[in-house]
Specification:
Jelly Rolls, 2 domains, globular
Length: about 250
């Protein structure tokens, strides 16, 4: 059998793979670890956000992805294996728990403000299982919920909600309180051997997306020039990630 190939969302394109919209928690033993320790992680992340409010920022790749704009905020510990050391040092128990999960690549606190929604969007790849862990859920369906493809679910505090980030998905919070979830990405088992190159691919794509927003003139370049930029970013990141302090 050949090596499994992940799908990537680069320069557009809709996902048409075979992954389910939502995964079954019983098939993912690491979700039990999250649920068993959810209060510890909730307390550390909320304490960090409250003591350092400037670290909680609008989603940085596209700040208008939520409506009203800038009402979806995030604070990360890991981003595709890139470590936010200053945040991790404030959450030692959370870091300890996460490091016990094979293939963990990302973790962040996600805050959706009252009366806001996250516009429909696709993730970067189907190589990971993305999971929402409910930390503070102000209401159930239909006021507060999450849709992946055609399927709609609600969050519950202390419960993991694993899904395929590659499918188009959207969230909404029509309550009067903030919705807080912890977002964890775990590499699918068949892709763990490729995780360095997959993370470098996604990080390079993220850098490219931000560059297009900051310098709109870049959008005028031809496809092969854009691909050249992307390949250069990918190579640089692939070299940096393994030597970054704290890289696991």
């Amino acid at each position: 059998m050949g090596v499994a190939e992940p799908w990537y969302n680069l320069f557009g394109g809709r996902y048409d793979g075979d992954q389910p919209c939502f995964y079954e928690r019983k098939d993912l033993p690491w979700t039990e670890t999250l649920e068993r320790n959810w209060e510890v992680m909730r307390d550390e992340l909320i304490a960090l956000a409250q003591s350092h409010p400037k670290r909680l920022k609008p989603y940085f790749i596209n700040k208008s992805m939520s409506f009203p704009p800038r009402h979806w905020k995030t604070m990360g510990l890991y981003f595709w294996k890139y470590t936010m050391h200053s945040n991790c040092r404030k959450c030692p128990e959370t870091v300890r728990i996460l490091r016990g999960i094979p293939g963990m690549t990302s973790c962040s606190l996600s805050v959706l403000e009252p009366g806001a929604n996250i516009n429909p969007h696709q993730g970067d790849t189907d190589a990971i299982i993305r999971c929402h862990l409910g930390l503070s859920v102000p209401g159930g369906l239909p006021e507060c919920g999450f849709q992946v493809g055609p399927e709609i679910r609600g969050w519950r505090e202390g419960e993991a909600l694993p899904f395929c980030d590659a499918w188009t998905h959207t969230s909404w919070n029509n309550t009067r309180e903030k919705r807080l979830v912890m977002i964890i990405d775990v590499m699918r088992p068949e892709f763990i051997a490729q995780q360095n190159s997959i993370c470098a691919h996604v990080l390079a794509s993220s850098v490219l997306q931000m560059a297009y927003q900051w310098v709109p003139a870049l959008n005028k370049f031809s496809g092969w020039v854009k691909n050249g930029f992307y390949r250069s970013f990918q190579l640089a990141i692939l070299l940096i990630l393994p030597i970054q302090r704290g890289f696991k």
